[in-house]
Structures are given as structure tokens and as C-alpha cells.
Amino acid sequence: MYQKGRAWIELNRGHLMDNIRQFRMLLPADCALMPAVKANAYGHGAPLIAGALQEQGVHSFCVASVAEGIELRQAGIWGEILVLGYTHPGQFSDLAYYSLTQTVVDLEYARKMQEDGHRFTVHIGIDTGMHRLGERWDNLEGILEIFRFPNLKVTGIYSHLCASDGITQWERTYTLEQIRHFESVVEELHRKGIFGFKCHLQGSYGILNYSELCFDYARAGIALYGILSGKGDKVDAPLQLHPVLSLKARVETVKTLYRGEGAGYGLAYRTGENRKIGALSIGYADGIPRSLSNCGYVLCHGRKAPVIGRICMDQMLVDLTDVPQVRAGDEAILIGRSGDLEIRAEDLASWAGTISNEILSRLGSRLERVME
């Protein structure tokens, strides 16, 4: 039986399955999910998440690096694994050995892959306006040249929408322009007699705000885990997604901080009256932002316990005055539900001045992960 230690992550399999079901109902029938399980599946644990998804008939995945792809192969993931980022030529042999699909980040990169001598399966990145990776959408001759390289088997092309999370007129107009650019590339390739490649364009917000698009894959990311990037983000799709991840830690000690005393590094918290405080067994080495010092709260026995003092590498302090029944060894909830209260990843991100993607993807390797 799994023993929960100092700090850990609980994954709700039922919530993940329901999120998958909702995305499949939203997307066109012939559009397959290609979940993004990069950055350790946004902190959730890539082998656990990909394994659960594979059991549900998901057979295409996105990762950021060769190392992430290898981890999935070694965990028994046998479907298509697309490396979204740059792979150094020194690692080209790993692409071939582990049957990973590599993104062609531009024409010059395709030439390096061709010259390497291995046979590669690739998707071509198309730059439709984000100006990050990909060959420019209007350089059709360059894109056609990539298709002609005999050592590159092109099985897909894709792009990324950089403003699909926005609801302003400017953001919607720019997104529609990106969509038109991508569709024009597909049309031109077909006019040139090139078929048989898969197309994908939408990430999480592309799915939630432009679900009417009909491509072969949809790269669900943060939303697949039941989370949006920012607190208060508005989306068009009427889905009721459920957070998959809960983050918990132990209350290590409970003690009294007397009036006038300070606590933590630099004594950054001081009290004007006696307070009951506790140390939790989690810190910034586990992914808790140091910017949450003296900010926000955790949940314990269904009550709020404010964060006090500076976040340490391995511990953090909270005010437990309003939690009379707390004892050392009890659970504290940093993300998740306790009684009638809930802290979402979006809440933590808001307190830290960032987005939930960053909060989750930085959750550290010391945190044990268990799917229930």
C-alpha cells in the first residue's frame, strides 16, 4: 500500500477520465487527442498520466525533448511521441533508436537531419505568426524542399496559436489570421499533390475557444488536467473540467509564537499577539514559489491557515491559530480540497504573480506521485 510521506501529489484518475470524455465530445469525431505530457505532464507525472491515457485509447503524445520521449518509451508508451522542441544533432541517433517523431524547426534544421544519414519521422513546424519555431508559412518553396528530403518521412505539419487564450477583438483577429495562414499551407501542399500528412494547430485554448476547427489532432495541454492558465480566464466551450492534481504536505511541528517574536529567515513574520504556528514539510525545492512568502494560505481540517514568513528550501510556516484540532503529522493542502474549501492551481499562481502552467510544471521530483 502506498505510504504518503513528507509531501506528495495525489492524482484523481476519475477526473482525468472525465476530462478526456468532455474533450472528445467537444472535438470533431475524426480529431484525435494528442495530449501534451511535456514537463512531466505539467508536474503530474508523465509516465502515470500517459499510461492512464494510453489505457483510454490515446496513442499520440507531445513532449518537449528527446529525454522526455525516452522516459515514456521506457515506461511502456508505444504510440506516436512527437518532440515539439529542438533536438541537438548529437542526439539524432536517439530519435531513430526510440522511434520518436521530431519537429523540423526550420529548413536549415531539416538539412542537418538529412545530412545525418539516419531515417527520421518528422512533423514540420509552420510559423504562422508566433515567430518561435517553424518554417515561415509564406515560404512554401522551403516547406516543399523539406518534403523532398529522402531521409525525412513527413507524417505531419503543425503550428501554434499564440493568442487563442485572449478574448479581445485584436487577439481573435490575430488568431483567425494564424488559422488562415496554416490552412493556406495545407491547401497549397494539396495543390502540389502532397497528401498523407496529419495536421494540428490547437492547444488547450485553441480547443476551448475555436472548437469548430477540424484538424487531425488536438494538442490538449493544461486544460486536460482540469486547470486554466490564469484565474478568471474566460473560454467559449461550456466544459466542466475537474482538477486532476492535489498537493499535500505534513504538518511537522505545532508551537506557540509569543507576542513580539518573529519566525523564519530574517524573522520576516512578527506577531503582535500569541499565535499558534506550524512548519510544513515542503518548500521551494519542491516547487513552492518563494514569492509566496507571507502570502496566501493552505488548508487544514477544512480551515484556512495563512502562510507566514519566508518560504524555505524544505519547509514553510503557516498560522494555525484558527485550526484548534491540528496536530503534528496532519495533512495540509496546498492545492486541492479540504471540507468546503478549495485551493486551485490558479489561486496559487495568482498569489505568486504567474500562471498555473508554471506552478504545476515546477513541482519537484521529491514529491511522490500517486494516482487514486
Put simply, the count of helices is 11
Quaternary assembly: single chain
Helix content: 25-40%
What's the mean pLDDT score? Answer: 97
Rg is 23 Å
The global form is elongated
Based on secondary structure, the structural category is alpha/beta
Structure description:
- This protein has helices at 13-26, 38-42, 46-55, 66-74, 92-97, 107-116, 140-148, 169-191, 204-209, 345-352, 356-361, and strands at residues 7-11, 32-33, 60-63, 80-83, 101-104, 120-127, 135-136, 152-158, 198-200, 217-218, 245-257, 262-263, 269-270, 275-280, 297-300, 303-308, 316-319, 331-338, 341-343, 368-371.
- It has 372 residues and is an alpha/beta fold.
- The strands form four sheets. Strands 1, 11, 14, 15, 16, 17, 18, 19 and 20 form a nine-stranded mixed β-sheet that branches. Strands 3, 4, 5, 6, 7, 8 and 9 form a seven-stranded parallel β-sheet that branches. A two-stranded parallel sheet has the order 2-10.
- Strand 16 and strand 17 form a beta hairpin.
- The longest helix is centred in the middle third of the chain and has 23 residues, at 169-191.
- The protein is elongated, with a radius of gyration of 23 Å.
Give a concise summary:
28% of the residues lie in helices and 25% in strands. With 372 residues, it is an alpha/beta fold.
